[in-house]
Amino acid sequence: MKILIVYAHPEPRSLNGSLRDRMVATLAAAGHEVLVSDLYAEGWKAALDGADFPAEPAGARLEVVAASHRAFAEGTQTADVAREQRRLLWADAVILQFPLWWFSMPAIMKGWVERVFAHGFAYGVGEHSDRRWGDRYGEGVFAGKRAMLVVTAGGWAEHYEERGINGPIDDLLFPIQHGILFYPGFSVMEPFVVYRADRMDAERFHDVTGELDRRLAGLFVEAPISFRPQNAGDYEIPSMRLKDGLERAGLQGLRLHRR
Ligand code: FAD
User: From which residue to which does any coiled coil extend (predicted)?
Assistant: First the structure.
């Protein structure tokens, strides 16, 4: 299979750099084709701005959604954005790898999403009417592909449990896993999170990479997170509120959006 790793860490000799190298080696040894988008090394431009739309008339007021739509539809996107879109379409699975910075992905990776997930490509796709909100949340350009987060965090696992002070990791990653990945159609695997990442030694690294290898072996085998598809009857139309009575014991908050 073909796997794209989108990697965001400024230091190749970091823990993240080691984990990335391990993933490439493990996946290649299993017979997969692997591509890495190394955002810092490639000098990725993080900010979405007027320079992304060179075909827009000079001096015109920038309407970002409309400009994104035109650039994608008319093939006037910048070369770096078009290349990343080709890589995404090529891949059977996409891994986003990053250190947790301020409870989210580093800004450079958020900028990769903002610029690459263009209107007409990753959003604004399909019928938009009073009855339908497009092909999203389970449908969309990436339907049939898998995605997984590989994240390192300084905090302890307990800090990210249900009653942990940082909030549950599933909730913190919801905007990425549900909003960024499931929205344009990916089947999202449970994340691989390394806690207390700043307290790593050779023995722990051995254990962590062993577990990472195991998760990679299950990338196309294990069941993805059971996020509810938008157009499968679980949400009221047109409010898109989850219908009453779908709660399961123990599930509340954002986890209600899992089946
Ligand atoms: P590194 O600093 O490169 O390494 C971590 C440890 O691993 C070091 O001890 C290093 O010696 C060791 N190591 C590296 N490679 C190997 C190897 N091959 N074998 C064995 N040991 C190795 N944490 C949170 O929990 N929540 C947050 O919101 C959060 N926000 C942050 C915001 C910022 C701006 C920053 C800078 C940090 C934040 N952190 C947060 C902490 C951050 O998540 C961790 O520092 C990061 O995940 C560690 O990953 P790294 O690749 O940078 O590690």
Answer: none
